[in-house]
Amino acid sequence: MEDRLICNNQFNIGHICTRQQCEQGRGDKVAMRWISPAMERTDYTFSDLDAESSRFANVLQALGYAAGDVFFTFLPKMPEQFFAFLGALKLRVVAGTLFSNFGEEALLDRLGDSQARGVITKKSFVKKIANVRDRLPGLRHIIVVDIDEHQSGDVLSYRQLMRDASSDFTAPLTTPDTPSVLHYTSGSTGKPKGVQHVHRSVLHQNQTAREVLCLAEDEIYWCTADQGWVTGTSYGIIGPWSLGVTQVHFGGGYNAEHWFTLLEQEQVTIWYTAPTALRMLLREDPALFGRFDLARLKHIFSVGEPLNPEVIHWSRRTLGREIYDTWFQTETGGIMISNRPGLEVRPGSMGKPVTGIEAAIIADDGSTMPDKEQGNLCAKPGWPSMFVTYLNNDEVYRQKFRGGYYFSGDTAYRDADGYFWFLGRSDDVINTAGHLISPFEIESALLEIPEVAESGVIGAPDDLLFEKVVAFVTLHSQFSYSRELELKIRLHVTNKLSSIATPQEIVFTDVIPKNKSGKIMRRVLKARYLGTDAGDISTLEI
Amino acid sequence: MDTMETLNGIFREVFDDPSIILKRETTADDIDEWDSLSHINLVIAVETKFNIRFALGELQTLKNVGEMVDLIEKKIRK
Questions:
Q1: From CA A434, how far away is CA A208, in angstroms rounded?
Q2: Is the pLDDT of residue A468 over 60?
Q3: Cα gap A428→B76, rounded to integer Å
Q4: Percent of chain A beyond pLDDT 70?
């Protein structure tokens, strides 16, 4: 069979990434080279991927799941996560992914808003879900990967379920408009919003994996992103496997020695990682890199936050490789603007729009900004991986589109040669290590601590993380600062939200600046922290 | 209570997991929640509970929990 992406109008991502690859002659080809945290290797062919995901589709079907139901993975990177994700998609169940470090409040927001029917997780995470279970009436099943037998009618053993399930499942014909992947993203106000994608997205993810990341039949590809985030699904699952490419997936965390051992031993040819990781590598002893033979490595790509020119120069000097920065968002579902082989890299620039994307810098009044002038980074709607709504929040979705453009929330400018240059956010959302964090969520979590009277949270520049979370708190009069209280605050935010939302710095202060209507003036907090001019403070109440 | 036992209690509190049982060979890869950001919580907790201070980068060279215990005991003795 020829290598067409869409055959017989079948847009099902789960099918395209597994069964279709087998039908196109890749059944025995390694789809996933799994490297455990202990550096042990297990290979899964496309036939294995098809069989295991089909088994999981049958598991969900037997449990009563149908098209449109929502099912989440809440796992660290591990093979079961991929089988469950693809299996859910095969059944046309909406596949959501949750970052494995989420705390109970973060889980409640996402599982609750989406009215998820089920979640797959591991034993040590069950407690977090159990703590909020009584507020999740729609949650029917917790499938646990590391227990041998079912614990109750709704806490089920993955192994037991899979033992009894057939490995044969044919995905029903799936239209391009069928809901597929669900990721939650943070805004500057309110709860996180569910960004809904549809199966059509595979068109753009496949195209950009091919044209930007240069993925082709013989490449060995490693994407370090966690599957809890859009990069981990769009380019750690869908893009590469829709092309039949072998992927390395590593279950361990950042470790320069392990990472370079992997690049060398697994003969990785294309590597997609993040600026924070690259900046951590930059801090390592340069002698480390000389010990590894990276002759097979062709290209390095980066995504998440702007890549500082220093890192690009370091890579040229130390690794002898260019790093290509790419830009996209949860909402865009795929790469929109990028540096890429064949395009001259201008260090610090986002690059140029990819094929089919019309990007523009638009003023608040809707007019197009001239070159070199700052404005809202926008894109003409209509690209295939564009989100279709914010779940249960269509009004906010519609607000993202004005005058025929999608407003990304980022600010940038375009130079005379068509390169885009990122400048910042147009709202208060914090980008720390590539993760967007809502200050509102952190402020709310802080206020749950009995000692805390008021809180205000900002993002401040950071050499490693791009931005760090800085929390200002005032205490009730009967309390005072102690190291124990600081620890208590940190642990509360970590356990309620996640480690990435935990303030890097906590400033104990007497007052949080607010305007006359009681809104926290984060702009003033930021100016105070940075020692810069706060601008217009005529509305400042305190 | 010996250092390992106290440290075990700290790990359970910091990573909100009462099932954690530390061994000298335990590393960050063995505990799901232990990443570079939650590591900061761990450092503050250890410093607070043992009333010691770590120098910048001092913990980065440690290979496992056993080496952390040794470092803590060395600092307590000082």
A1: 20
A2: yes
A3: 43
A4: 98
- Determine contact, residues A188/A169, Cβ cutoff 8 Å: no
The confidence score (pLDDT) of residue A1 equals 47
Angle CA A289–A295–A298, to nearest 5: 100
Angle at Cα A95 formed by Cα A90 and Cα A101, nearest 5°?
A: 140
Mean pLDDT (whole number) for B29-56: 87
What tokens appear for A490 in the block? 């940190």
Task: State what percent of residues in chain A have pLDDT above 90.
Answer: 88
Q: Is the dihedral of CA B46, B50, B56, B62 positive or negative?
A: negative
Domain ranges (residues) in chain B:
3-77
Clarify whether residues A490 and A345 are in a common domain. no
Distance from CA of A75 to the nearest CA of B (A): 9
User: Please, what is the average pLDDT of chain B?
Assistant: 89
Which residues on chain A place their C-beta less than 8 Å from a C-beta of chain B?
Answer: 37-38, 76, 100-101, 103, 122, 124-125, 127-128, 251-254, 433, 483-484, 486-487, 490-491, 494-495, 499-500, 502, 504
Question: Taking 70 as the threshold, does the pLDDT of residue A542 lie above it?
Answer: no
- pLDDT, average across residues B22-48: 88
Q: Could you report the predicted ipTM of this complex, rounded to two decimals?
A: 0.85
Q: Is the pLDDT of residue B18 over 90?
A: no
Tell me how many degrees the CA angle A3-A221-A328 measures, rounded to the nearest 5.
90
Contact state of B32 with A486 under an 8 Å Cβ cutoff: no
Which residues of chain B have a CB within 8 Å of the CB of A253?
28-29, 35-36
If asked whether residues A407 and A462 sit together in one domain, one would say no
Interface check B62 vs A, CB under 8 A: no
- Residue at A49 is within a domain: yes
Q: What is the pLDDT of residue A538?
A: 63
Element (DSSP H or E) covering residue A223: strand A220-223
pTM of the model: 0.90
CATH number of A434's domain: 3.30.300.30
Burial class (CB in 10 A: 0-12, 13-18, 19+), B49: middle
Residues of chain B found within 8 Å of residue A100, distances taken between Cβ atoms:
32
- Which of A351, A382, A411 is the C-terminal boundary of a domain? A411
B47 inside 8 A of chain A by CB: yes
Mean of the per-residue pLDDT values for chain A? Answer: 94
Mean pLDDT, residues A209-232 taken together: 97
B73 interfacial to chain A (CB closer than 8 Å): no
Confidence (pLDDT) at A539:
62
Q: In this predicted structure, what is the pLDDT of residue A327?
A: 97
Domain residue limits at A442: 430-530
Fold for domain B3-77? 1.10.1200
Cα(A100)–Cα(A77) distance, rounded to whole angstroms? 8
